[in-house]
User: Fold these one by one.
Assistant:
Number 1:
Amino acid sequence: MQSPSRLYTVGRLVALLLLFSALPLQAEVNIWMTTEEFLESAFVDATYEPQVLWITPDLRNELETALDRSYSGIRIRYWGNGVRSAWILEQIGKERLITAGFVTEGQQMVFAKVLEYRESRGGEVRYDSFLNQFLGIQLNHKQELDSHIDGITGATLSVWSMQEMATAALLLEKYASQRSLAQL
């Protein structure tokens, strides 16, 4: 027969194993592109400047609708050259942030890349076969994407997050363009 202290120790060990096995696995951060690499590919052989767009109450309301969450920022940094704008945004997929870059020109999406992916599933959103669906997309009169984006089995929440960020990037471009026109 085993001693009570040995049973107690074994019981504690089993309890700890059960506790740790119930915790979600920590997803590793997959960095597929740095900010610098993204900007170089967004502005090939062109100069660009860092810019700041202040978040007005109207823009905040539209961003919150697009992102389906509250937005607490007071400004957002982006990069532009008067024709093209690059936006780096973050959105929760299922449990962790997805960092993506979007390039807009003339209120239309011309480039999209996933920069960092932290989820354990759904990383297929980084592939060009998915991202190419965003090319040429614009906002319709309801401030929604004007084209359907096909989903990826097992990556539904990541796909939705990418759609939300693309919508936000186009909204931000719209407000940045209006601000530029008002300054002329």
Note: The chain has five helices and six strands.
Number 2:
Amino acid sequence: SVAGFVISLERAAARRPQVERILQRCPIPCQRLAAVDGAALSAAELQAIYAPQLFRPRNPFPRSIGNIGCFLSHRRAWQRLLNGGLSAALILEDDVELDPGFKASLDFALKVVQPGDYVQFQARDIGKRHRCIASDGHHALVWPVVAPRRTSAQLVTREAAERLLETSQRIDRP
């Protein structure tokens, strides 16, 4: 089964109406998931997950507590997917807009997704450098040469969530 999660900070009261719109418009059963508040992480909690310069090439960007909290929120969603016995989850951030064509895009992705797949729904142009994996003439699932860093809307399979959780126990960049 597939479910949806809308990641939202508890203290972000101004975004609650948007979260409610997403929950109402989402074409699959969807629930709000409390985000990890990076600003509330203790030094010990940060040190447990974040290790500057862990991988090469070195991360050229400065550490952002907000980005780390956002990344940990996605890890929370992946874990909820596993704990719930789901085959996949649609993970949405609370600032997305689900346009009328989203249901058809999601239906296409659900039809072609394979175990282990991770799909980002992009509102921005990803450029011309990609390989088409599947297309129905209206929608295309593509593999970009350079993956966009934006994760506003993603479809994560169970196997992908397992792999993502395993490989992100320590990070040097969200």
Note: Residues 65-83 form the longest helix (19 residues).
Number 3:
Amino acid sequence: MKGWKGLLRYGGPWYGNDAQRARFELGIKQHFPSLVASNVGSGQKAGRRYVGVLTIPHVEFRRVEILFLKNSPDVPSITVDGPSDSPHRYKGNRLCIWHPNDPRAARWLFEDGLVRLVGLIVAHLFREAWWRETGEWLGPEAGHST
């Protein structure tokens, strides 16, 4: 049967499937070469982690960790180092980049890929630095609890 392999379904998370992982990570080394990927943990703590240093234009460098856990493989947990004072951070230096109820154009979805996610992280970190300097948040905001 021609093309039968395309009919097979993969039962694990996307990062265990070479084709799905390659699509998700497409272009990341070209745009953000410092990011290093690895599969981590086991059981409920298993997942895919990306760690690297990002250049924030006109501001600073930040070390970032993006973690996709096996039990929620399309929802990243994003943590960064540096100053934690921001109206858009959760405890533990986790970033709040979008609200789940935001319109599609205002949030990241898994099919957008890793390059777009990292681009949103860089933009968010620039906004945080601007806010620390001026008290003004550049762009739309949604309130949340920490």
Note: The longest helix spans residues 113-134.
